[in-house]
Amino acid sequence: MNxxxxxxxxxxxxxxxxxxxxxxxxxxxxxxxxxxxNYPEKPLTVIAPSGAGGGLDTTARALSKALMExxxxxxxxxxxxxxxxxxxxxxxxxISQDSADPYRLYLPSVPLLINNLxxxxxxxxxxxxxxxxxxxxxxxxxxxxxxxxxxxxxxxLFDDLKKDPESLVLAGGSAPGSxxxxxxxxxxxxxxxxxxxxxxxxxxxxxxAMTALIGGNAxxxxxxxxxxxxFLKAGKIRVLGVSSSERLKGTYAEIPTYKEAGIDAEFTIxxxxxxxxxxxxxxxxYWNKTLTELTKTEExxxxxxxxxxxxxxxxxEEFQTFLxxxxxxxxxxxxxxxxxx
Length: 341
Hints:
This protein is α/β, with parallel strands linked by helices. Helix content is about 45%, strand content about 20%.
């Protein structure tokens, strides 16, 4: 009898202890569960590493507006501009903050890779210091000449550059070794041009570079195709080639790709959304799901059409793979220019 009472006492004590542990743990467990279920619970900030009115700023604001209009998020996304250093200033500032804060997002483009890889690069950080969430849009590089240029195709242009790489002036809206420069250097490398001797002049943005071309201060312009539409329609320029895998539509339907010109090269100018490196999994899952749904809406399709952007959506996994592949490509181009680290 005594033995049975002892067993019963031990059983009751064990049960009480178990209930006590559950009771002690449940507030924390519930809080974590609640935090994930209710995310986001307050306004978010999107860092655009460019000045107001630039492509990254425009994309961030369009994203914020579309998310609210579709009702996919009830919390607003405030855009904060952090220009400087070809996106390096904004990246450094973002990384210096709480690496697990799910309420801060970052929206860069290709220089995220370039700045980290080139010899004169001004960033020790790369996409590996962030959490890729989604590629949102894609644009393509274009090689452009004035409307009255003697060049009507890429082959004739590169034939002359092979003979004398210093004979023509190439303009771009970014520093040597950065995005616009690489737009032209990639096909030039593939065409066996000595790219180290090409005379490249950088301007403060694609607009100034376009003005230099039309004004006769440059022979060739390397830029993104979406910024060339109005000049093409006005008959001020001729686009010799575009870095897409296939021909584009609408205004650009008659422009051949690099590949059509016999140059095996492609280059995507992307804009994507990232979180901090240690972003909680619940926030990663939220954005993966929400952005996938957003890209299917009429509101987002209108954003793309209005801004002349291509639908370049890639989910988290696809974007991660793409970044790894483009990092290799950028490294190869920089090595050809003797500009790699």
